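I am writing to request your help with a piece of structural work I have in hand. Here, with my thanks, is the record as I have it:
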Amino acid sequence: MEQCSASITVELGGKIVAQTTTSWRVLETSHPPTYYLPRTAFAPGALREADGASWCEWKGQAAYLDVVGGSGAVAPGAAWTYPAPSRGFEVLAGAIAVMPAAMDRCTVDGEVVEPQAGGFYGGWITAAVVGPFKGDPGTHGW
């Protein structure tokens, strides 16, 4: 995990719902990076609480959020946060990650992100990272 100064944008429904140059880039085994953005990076009204929770063996209990974009677009449960992350990940408390596959477009320094395959993972693939990645065909059980 590292603090990152890349320019990050997230778009949904033809609207930029988040924009920042402050984020945390998290790498997990066999995954492209996931970016966690400060809640202040999101436009007012772009996040709302959603049902559901999950457990990460490293970061702890995650809570989910809907992402609300322009033209009434909603990506249900497409963002998550760790309100009280596990030891070693405290810096992520309250930061928000999004599923790039559920957004219209996510960018890192102007490069459009390719979402990590698999429907469950939130990795952001750019030219700076090389797979194979968990989620691709044949990777179940990695």
Summary: The longest strand covers residues 47-56. The two ends are 21 Å apart (CA to CA). Residues 2-125 form a domain with the Metal Binding Protein, Guanine Nucleotide Exchange Factor; Chain A fold (CATH 2.170.150.40).
